[in-house]
Write a structure and sequence with these properties.
The chain contains twelve helices and 19 strands. By secondary structure, the protein is of the alpha/beta class. It folds into three domains: 143 residues, Rossmann fold (3-Layer(aba) Sandwich), CATH 3.40.50; 109 residues, HAD superfamily/HAD-like (Rossmann fold, 3-Layer(aba) Sandwich); 71 residues, no CATH class. The radius of gyration is 21 Å and the shape is globular. 54% of the residues are buried. Keywords: Hydrolase. One of its GO terms (molecular function) is phosphatase activity.
Length: 354
């Protein structure tokens, strides 16, 4: 999947792809709260024959706990439908370590379980001479655990992070993520960790192999992790506008972070997706929306971008115009790119794929 622009699909994505690799925070839920349209979108995708695997950079929780939360939000899920960064971290450790090797785990229950199940001995002190340090997010982590990690890494232990997300979405806003905590150990030791989580495509590849998928679709809210992982792994990626990255981020995205499809939310799995079409005088059109770049500035064709009242087709047209200009060597003035908020009707899937 090397196409650098948006793709079109004349059939719903749930019919085109047999496996969806779905992120959690900002996609299926936000903190402990549901996201409007998520349950209905995923239920419709399953009804169309699409298999769902929930792929998360959260390494603090065990798959069963994640499955229980999803089920409580009307998204029925089994533990086998969940793949965490903790499991990917353990798989990465297994590429260099031997069964029984000591690993200092700095993280929550999910990472502890995954490392043990991979056959390693879990230790909690640098004085136990671990050969590796595995660090994942847990809200209870404090200075003492980070210090042990720093001591072990300074003594030569292999430093592996479950993921490097700097922030994570919660019901109250964005909080420091594992990447921020890993940064403390990196600052103390000068050692850059290897990472198992997104944007590495390791988890996507594990899921595809595990489920024998014909063609998989990555679904996420973050360009720098979910969609970057899709690009690096050669998977198609759907960006849903319910989490961290915005429509404006899409328009300004460099090639390695660009989605292949854009939708307001998970209802976008259930509709066709119109592909932007180039036209005269540099215009790109998608449905009733149009955009072009003139003298380095994005022109939305006179459309008054009213927050909460724009079409997702406008996002698509703007992306096509901006990406085409940038890829041709033109410099895009970021100040000319407004925030584009998709209407409520788009967020429920009505008209989302015009």
């Amino acid at each position: 999947m090397t196409h650098a622009g948006l793709l079109g699909s004349d059939i719903p994505l749930a019919e085109r792809y047999d496996l969806a690799l779905v992120d959690l925070d900002g996609v299926a839920y936000r903190g402990h709260e549901p996201i409007d349209g998520a349950a209905a979108g995923l239920a419709g995708a399953r009804a169309a024959g699409m298999r769902l695997v929930f792929v998360t950079n959260n390494a603090s929780r065990e798959p069963g706990s994640v499955a229980d939360q999803l089920t409580s939000l009307d998204i029925p899920t089994e533990p086998g439908d969940v793949l965490t960064a903790a499991q990917a971290c353990a798989a990465l450790l297994a590429t260099r370590l031997s069964p029984g090797d000591k690993v200092l785990v700095v993280g929550g229950a999910g990472l502890l379980t995954a490392v043990r199940e991979a056959g390693f001995e879990v230790v909690s002190s640098a004085d136990d001479a671990p050969v590796a340090v595995a660090q994942g997010f847990a809200p209870e982590l404090g200075w003492a655990q980070l210090a042990e990690a720093a001591y072990a890494v300074s003594r030569g232990a292999w430093f592996v992070a479950s993921n490097l997300d700097l922030s994570l979405p919660t019901a109250r806003g964005f909080a420091p993520g594992n990447g921020a905590l890993v940064g403390a150990v990196r600052a103390a030791t000068g050692v850059v960790p290897d990472s198992a989580g997104k944007p590495a495509s390791t988890m996507y590849e594990i899921a595809v192999e595990r489920h024998g998928a014909r063609e998989a679709l990555v679904v996420g809210d973050r360009l720098d992790t979910d969609l970057a992982g899709a690009r690096s792994g050669g998977f198609a990626g759907l960006h849903v506008l319910t989490g961290v990255s915005t429509a404006r981020d899409d328009v300004l995205a460099p090639a390695g972070l660009r989605p292949h499809f854009v939708a307001a939310d998970l209802g976008g799995l259930l509709v066709p997706h119109a592909a932007p079409v180039p036209g005269a005088e540099g215009w790109w059109t998608c449905g009733d929306a149009a955009a072009r770049v003139v003298d380095g500035r994005l022109d939305l064709g006179g459309v008054d971008v009213d927050p909460g009242a724009a079409s997702v087709d406008l996002v698509r047209a703007a992306c096509a115009a901006a990406w085409s200009a940038v890829d041709a060597g033109e410099e895009l003035d970021a100040s000319s790119v407004p925030e584009i908020h998709v209407t409520r009707s788009e967020a429920t899937g009505v008209g989302a794929g015009r």
